[in-house]
Design a protein that fits this description.
heterodimer; A: six-stranded mixed sheet; four-stranded antiparallel sheet; about 25% strand; B: about 55% helix
Chain lengths: ~250, ~450
């Protein structure tokens, strides 16, 4: 692979609490994520998977270790640059949606562009574009609160997409959805991954969802371990081909 | 995020909880409205006074009164309702003699350099608060005890606070007196009712024969409630006041009989301050005090400004309370919007922008509150000014009760916005410091 990984973590450690009570949320994690890859971070609650995602997304800082973006050390970036990075290069999808429930779908989708300081007409144009991708153009003027769960998550994906990001971080994106709508949201995410080449980092409990990713990272007590099941699906599987992994205790 | 977007978002956020926002704005409004209204009246009164001053052109006129007058006026205001004091021969009596200007003093004043002429005010009727030219040594009731006693004239139209008895009659020849309630027992009456119709003897100094006293009998017609207006003594009707004055001056030569409460001196034009001061000093030597119209107006203005200041302080206190309301409102907003703040931070909105957003919410509260204050004050002015001009300011044409100084109003609005900003810094800081992960986890 000639191309440098879009995100790389080196000897990542995160310690919470004071000396006697300290908890190692991450313990020497090494990880490389390539451009266009889809990766699942899997682990029990408390395994450190959310912490890892937060640190990769620059929402949190590691106690020690280095994060590289395109091969460059990004640990020393200034707050301003980090904010810009999150705004321009990253998209976020959360389990609980986090939308302004009383605001319209359009306004919710435009929020990252508003933060970026883009003028209104442009905001609207781009928001309508991404709403078309998630097939919710007709709901643009609807209040976010009046949508179904699946629609809400699609709005969130549109919002994550609107800044044309390089990476989308999804934290249990289907956790609040039933299997049918969940599948639709999954399909949408992987479609974006394939068609737009957006790198996908998904934190999940859902074995099926994890199996659809190119690569799975298992975390236990802050360390990356080998697959807890025998069927070994750590290597890159061709995109689109379903992973074999099933029935993990995750 | 662009500033205009931040301002729009801040105002949209305020509209999310309309009731709370309205109440906070109302609190700001009360404070600013009070200040705007009082400052409006102040501007109105001052501009009227200034116009009058310019019309009068009173540059070279000096108001002359006796030096003792002003002191006595202050004294009577301060020591209003003190208890009856037993007569003490070693103390000098409360003398109102010195309060008058004598003809002799006026003649001396006429000789002062730079004074062109002096003309006294001649009162056709006794209208001054204190009968000028009388010194009461003491008064005696039914028990023979001597008490210090001071009186003032009853003025038609001024209602005395009567406990018992009837009003003083300025038309009758009967010598009537109304006494303060504390004197009922002091003079040996059983109660208020008992005192009515009884006789009181007032001993007045004969100014023509030093040391001699003239007794004057007066009929008690009323007992007055204690108030700052009842001096340590009572009120007298015109015929009693005249009798006292006659008794005090019966043995004086005509020249000394002349008593004036006030006089005006025409000065040479374009005198310097030093020359003016010199005239005042010379007047002081002969027991008079001179005041230019400007100084006199200055005194009125100072008194008026003191009242305005009190109201402005009230307004200020209301604003202080309102700013606490702003703090409270914003703290609640930060609490409610914790997740939203977390989300926006995750999406790359910087601390300073979050701080700015909440600060602008605070500033907006201040702006709308004070703008509402300005608006309602204008409305009140439009209604009240013509109303005042038709009623209690009828005799003062050209007197607009309220007048607004645009610069002052803008300054006030800016000041209220600044106060609101300061109040908002606390919650805004809390919002800006929120950790996005913690904020997103917040339930």
């Amino acid at each position: 692979m000639n191309e440098k990984p879009i995100l790389a973590a080196k000897r990542l450690t995160k310690i919470y609490g004071k000396k006697s009570l300290e908890v190692k949320a991450l313990d020497g994690v090494n990880l490389e994520i390539n451009r266009g890859e889809s990766m699942a971070i899997i682990g029990k609650s408390g395994s450190g998977k959310s912490t890892l995602m937060h640190i990769l997304a620059f929402l949190d800082t590691p106690t020690s270790g280095v994060i590289e973006i395109n091969g460059k050390n990004a640990t020393k970036l200034k707050t301003r640059q980090v904010n810009r990075l999150r705004n321009r290069r990253f998209g976020f999808v959360f389990q609980q949606f986090f939308m302004n429930a009383r605001d319209t779908v359009l306004n919710n989708v435009m929020l990252p562009l508003k933060i970026a300081g883009i003028r209104k007409s442009e905001r609207k144009r781009r928001a309508m574009e991404v709403l078309e991708i998630v097939e919710l153009t007709d709901k643009a003027k609807t209040r976010a609160n009046d949508l179904s769960g699946g629609q809400k998550q699609r709005v969130c994906i549109a919002r994550a997409l609107v800044n044309n990001p390089a990476v989308i971080f999804a934290d249990e994106p289907t956790g609040n959805l039933d299997s049918v709508t969940g599948a639709a949201v999954e399909n949408l995410l992987f479609k974006l991954n394939k068609e737009k080449g957006i790198t996908l980092i998904i934190v999940t409990h859902d074995a099926d969802l994890a199996a659809r990713c190119d690569r799975q990272i298992y975390l236990k007590d802050g360390k990356i371990i080998k697959s807890p099941v025998s069927s070994g699906v750590k290597t890159v599987s061709p995109p689109g081909k379903r992973g074999v992994k099933k029935g993990g205790r995750i | 995020m662009k500033l205009l977007d931040i301002i729009k978002s801040a105002n949209a956020n305020l509209l999310r909880n309309k009731g709370r926002t309205f109440l906070t704005i109302l609190a700001v409004f009360v404070g600013s409205f009070t200040i705007i209204l009082t400052s409006g009246i102040r501007t109105g009164v001052n501009s009227y006074i200034d116009t009058q001053m310019n019309n009068a052109g009173g540059e070279n006129v000096l108001e002359i009164s006796s030096s003792a007058m002003s002191e006595a006026m202050e004294g009577s205001m301060m020591g209003g309702s003190s208890a009856p004091k037993k007569y003490d021969p070693s103390r000098s009596p409360i003398s109102t003699t010195g309060m008058a200007i004598t003809g002799e003093q006026l003649n001396k004043a006429r000789k002062i350099n730079n004074i062109e002429s002096v003309s006294p005010f001649i009162m056709t009727r006794m209208t001054s608060m204190i009968p000028i030219g009388v010194a009461i040594k003491y008064a005696v009731g039914v028990n023979g005890e001597k008490y210090e006693f001071d009186v003032r004239s009853s003025i038609d139209g001024v209602n005395l606070d009567i406990r018992e008895g009837t009003k003083l009659d300025n038309q009758t020849k009967e010598r009537q007196i109304a006494i303060g309630m504390d004197y009922v027992a002091a003079f040996g009456f059983k109660d208020d009712k008992d005192a009515i119709g009884k006789e009181l003897t007032i001993y007045v100094l004969d100014r023509g024969r030093p040391g001699k006293l003239v007794p004057i009998k007066a009929k008690i017609v009323a007992v007055l409630n204690k108030s700052i207006l009842t001096m340590s003594g009572g009120s007298v009707n015109d015929s009693l006041a005249r009798a006292m004055l006659d008794a005090a001056s019966q043995n004086l030569q005509d020249n000394f009989r002349q008593m004036y409460t006030m006089a005006t001196a025409q000065l040479k034009p374009n005198l310097s301050d030093a020359e003016l001061d010199k005239i005042k000093d010379q007047l002081k030597e002969i027991g008079l005090s001179g005041m230019t119209a400007e100084e006199e107006v200055g005194m009125i203005k100072a008194f008026f400004d003191a009242i305005i200041l009190v109201f402005t302080i009230f307004g200020g206190i209301a604003l202080l309370a309102a700013s606490i309301g702003i703090i409270n409102t914003l703290f609640m907003a930060v609490q409610e919007r914790t997740r939203e703040i977390g989300l926006m931070k995750a999406m790359g909105l910087g601390r300073s922008k979050i701080f700015l957003m909440f600060s602008i919410e605070a500033i907006s509260l201040g702006f709308w509150g004070s703008a509402l204050g300005v608006g309602v004050a204008y409305l009140v002015k439009m209604i009240l000014n013509p109303l005042a001009a038709d009623t209690f300011l009828k005799d003062l044409p050209g007197f607009n009760l309220m007048k607004f100084d645009l610069v002052l109003l803008l300054l006030l609005v800016a000041l209220v916005m600044a106060i609101a900003f300061l109040a908002g810094t606390l919650p805004a800081r809390r919002a800006a410091r929120k950790d996005p992960i913690e904020a997103l986890r917040y339930e």
